## 1
Amino acid sequence: MTTFDQILPITTEVLEAHRNTVALLDWLIINRDLNGRVRFIAPQQSCEDEGQRTAVEAIYQALAERLGPHAYRTDAGVLYETTQEQARHGASGYALNGFDQVWVVDRLATEANWVRIAPETDGALRIVFFSIKGGVGRSTALAATAWQLAQTGKRVLVLDLDLESPGLSSALLPSERQPKYGITDWLIEDLLDNGDAVFDSMVATSNLSHDGDIYIVPAHGAEYGEYIAKLGRVWMPKLRADGVREIWSARLNRLLCALELRIQPDVVLIDSRSGIDELASACITDMGANLILLFAMEGEQTWNGYRMLFEQWQRSHVTEEIRERLRIVGAIVPDMDRMTYLEGVRESAYSVFAETLYDEIAPADQAVIGLTEVEDGKLLWRVDDLVEGWNFDEADEGAPHYPWEVNWHRSFAGLRSLQGRLTSIDAQEVQAVFGRLISGVRNAIDSRSTS
Ligand SMILES: Nc1ncnc2c1ncn2[C@@H]1O[C@H](COP(=O)(O)OP(=O)(O)OP(=O)(O)O)[C@@H](O)[C@H]1O
Ligand SMILES: [Mg+2]
């Protein structure tokens, strides 16, 4: 019996067998609906051309026979639309491997498809702290980074976007400093054009730093109110007065732009939700992040998770849009056998990156030797430049797979409040635990401000 994962390989095979007919169409959409059933959507003009219509329907029939439960009856399996935009109805798609004008369009029950990658923002650097697994020290590292950057005079804006498991702001702020509202309140009020009612009361400043400032926007306010009733609505798209539908992550982005305008930060640190989650997708793909920190603890679960994600980017041909922003962080490196542990992280990260995101560089013996050319009666040999791919050695410290380590340290272990720890900790200790991560972040900020 055919299952979901066989849909694309079978479709490719069937279309391959009818390549000449497919080539006659301006475009063809392989539409996978919410239940995982496949339809063709073809241009209206191919419906009006009897020969083409019969050919398209015959291909669909051949496909349907192989897809079994994942196909419609042949007479319901092909739809026609005048334009591709109408056919997509707002959904993004990617080219089916081996075909330029055949697009796979997935209808998902969530807005998060992970492959709609917003270009990098060109204002303050936006840095996302993400991990596949939870509890790997992401929020702690973010707080320490914010603290260190502020100590050296930076204005740091911190967003707690782990809405389903908030905690960062209470770690960074004593309770008397918590603002009245949080991100959740704004997302709810914005649905009714009432965001201004909470905007001025959703940012707090931390008392931790001496020189710069840390501005914190929590997930919820000092009084969280009916948090669950609100959380269930933050994902709502908004139908604007001009009829444009704005998905929730676009609304979030609008909020971040307004906060940046108000606060004028040097850097924005975003605490993302962990896992392949809708909120995490918004943080990583929709917010124009400039640096995406991928926290990783050594183990099969971590690497399987990252592989799933990277393969989806590869399949959808978007790797080039995102891969240069990524960096692995070796999370909570244990005291014992530090180097061996880190080498393990580096090795595993390298194999996932190399198999999914790095280019394969053509070996020198496959270099294309150009055609002989005749000039003034002489024969000239032209050797084409070797096309260099985006690739790194495993030991290259500048490579995205090369881990910036965060070390285990007893003063950060356990559930004691971070606020307490950071007020009593000294800069040397922070340096010893988070130094590599902080200098990486600092370099990214500096290279942004000099570019
Ligand atoms: N460098 C460190 N050394 C020792 N313990 C640490 C370190 N960093 C974090 N921890 C501890 O690990 C636990 C998880 O930390 P934290 O809450 O920062 O992780 P997280 O990845 O943000 O988790 P979640 O997914 O729940 O948001 C906490 O008990 C924290 O005290
Ligand atoms: Mg956290």
## 2
Amino acid sequence: MATVVQTSFPDLPLVRRGKVRDVYAVEGDRLLIVATDRISAFDVVLPNAIPEKGRVLTALTLFWLDLIRDVVPSHLITADVARYPAPLRKYAAQLEGRSMLVRRAAVVPFECVARGYLAGSGWKEYQKTGEVCGIPLPAGLREAEKLPQAIFTPATKAESGHDQNISEVEMAKAAGAEVTATLKRLTLAVYTRAADYAATRGIIIADTKFEFGRAGGEILLVDEVLTPDSSRFWPASEYAPGMSPPSFDKQYVRDYLETLTWNKQPPAPPLPPEVVRRTTEKYLEAYRLLTGRSL
Ligand SMILES: Nc1ncnc2c1ncn2[C@@H]1O[C@H](COP(=O)(O)OP(=O)(O)OP(=O)(O)O)[C@@H](O)[C@H]1O
Ligand SMILES: [Mg+2]
């Protein structure tokens, strides 16, 4: 499949170009979300595209939305291009396999993170304070250690720059206590369902981030779901607490970038062809292991 770095559909109103997705408005309060092959690391879009990445993100999101359909309703209308409105279908070649037609929602501006293991910013915070997002944890936990139970650790959705971890209380102050309680319950329920399934495939979902929105009086799960971009997937066979396990997520690219003397400000340095190739492999492997199918 051809690599897509950026789409431009002159007759469709562009709502936003995110780091990875191009989002267009479609009549009837709908959106066309196109996952390109762009990749970001440390919140900076890299100059290289990763072949197959947009298709993996889309196919995995669809896989999970089906698996968790009875836990929470989602924004998905269809990902079948043949069923898109006529004005979209002429772009089928660019949309096939990497796009979704969804209900447009008012996105709750918080990242709803579930953590079952101590990694990333959670591990950093724990080392300083013994807590993650205001949740006190047992003393003496090691990096990547499994938590006594999964926790809800929200973050602000920064318009630019890095997301910031906050406590549930802070989220409740800004978003309302009731919606915060609902999103916490849904976040943990979806995470638990997905993590239990992934365990049967030999994969640990260490943590993941969801976004929710409101549409027609309903709370919907929106955006991408349980992809390598929004989650940490670890092979269970290589897991040991006390070290950072090898992941199927962007850790491989991050690790490469850490070997350079880049200050993590744009522009990002180019990735060597070998790193691009192996990153594509990582994304395809994550899909294969989780779903049991090749893309
Ligand atoms: N159903 C929906 N209704 C409205 N907005 C949505 C919906 N689903 C996803 N979005 C938004 O579409 C955008 C997807 O683009 P992308 O993930 O590339 O952005 P991003 O650079 O990660 O920025 P962000 O930090 O906002 O996620 C996100 O801003 C997400 O909040
Ligand atoms: Mg995003």
